[in-house]
Amino acid sequence: MNKTVSKVFIASDHRGVGLKLYLIEMLSAAGYNVVNLGVDDPNTSVDYPDVAATLADAMIDTSDARGIIICGTGAGVMIAANRYRHIRASRCDTPSQARDDRFHDDTNVLALAADDIDIEVAFLCAQTFLESPFDNCERRIRRIEKIS
Known about the structure:
The chain is of the alpha/beta class. The chain has six helices and five strands; from the N terminus they run βαβαβαβαβαα.
């Protein structure tokens, strides 16, 4: 477990509730401090930009936290989350994508597609995302500063 991650904020729209609850259970069992930002009712429709705003607000003062955000496709929440300057979200379907996005781009939010990903693969993506380091070299920092 990456001890530098103080909290894992996790949020989903109605389509991602099942996957979110599974990830909360698995990540908590792995020793992470997981904060559920909602929603918890799969039968009440919510707008994914509102879910992204909730996650972004929670992460604004916590630089050592990471976020996981889930909707049906993963694309909507990723796009909405990336509107916030302190968020670097990427949609990942494989653990290697999660590792590479952390290493190259210092992503701090993992976006997942509840409709398209196996829950066990989603857990492996989340675990890899939380455990992977950022390369922290000059060129990568320079590139991130251009988007943050």
